[in-house]
Design goal:
mainly alpha; Rossmann fold; ABC transporter; transmembrane; P-loop_NTPase; two-stranded antiparallel ribbon; single chain
Length: 204
């Protein structure tokens, strides 16, 4: 750090390095703090690296669990390492969260939830607004005026699709061989069916 910044924020600076280089990095950072008065903020998953820090904060799921001096944390939770302290704090916090979720909600909280639901419904009704629709139409008009090709494609694309569909699937079917098999000779349903078909369309 050639310019000796007053505040240095590092995101996991020791990830992927060997133990010797990791030790040198921490020695250099400690020297910056002691001799140059630099405040260093570091995020790390290696909890034991924070033993020499003046202040440690445990964060889990975006929430701050605890913030204190490493020695005070070890003394308070009667642990030998910061990792053990973190595990104990996490288990305690998880148990407290379960207890809070099992508590019966108060009537005031239920009433507030109902009011919020009513406000949400009223907001949804306001979504159908003529001013909002007018603004959307005006925006579309400006977009089309800037790029007329969009309007041409919107008009021609359905016509092209219908034309291709008629060409591919339309038209009369010619020269298709048909065979009729009738095991029941008493009803002669197939002959009755053939009698109602135009003879010009069938070649026996």
């Amino acid at each position: 750090m050639f310019h000796k910044p007053p505040l240095l924020i590092l995101d996991e600076p020791t990830v992927g390095v060997d133990s010797v280089l990791r030790c040198r990095i921490w020695e250099y950072l400690e020297d910056m703090c002691k001799n140059h008065g630099t405040t260093v903020v570091i995020t790390t998953h290696y909890l034991e690296e924070a033993n020499t820090a003046s202040n440690v904060a445990y964060i889990q799921s975006g929430s701050l669990l605890v913030q204190s001096n490493p020695r005070d944390l070890l003394t308070k939770y009667e642990c030998r390492t910061l990792e053990e302290a973190f595990l104990q704090i996490s288990i305690t916090r998880k148990h407290e969260t379960r207890v809070e979720s099992c508590e019966t909600p108060k009537p005031q909280a239920i009433e507030q939830t109902a009011k919020n639901s009513l406000n949400l419904c009223s907001d949804r009704k306001k979504l159908i607004d003529l001013k909002h629709i007018r603004a959307l139409l005006w925006r579309s008009q400006i977009r089309i005026s800037r790029n007329p090709i969009i309007l041409v494609m919107l008009l021609l694309l359905p016509v092209i699709q219908i034309t291709l569909f008629c060409v591919c699937t339309g038209g009369r079917l010619n020269a298709i061989p048909i065979a009729i098999h009738e095991p029941d000779f008493d009803n002669h349903l197939s002959h009755q069916f053939l009698e109602h078909i135009d003879r010009q369309m069938i070649r026996e």
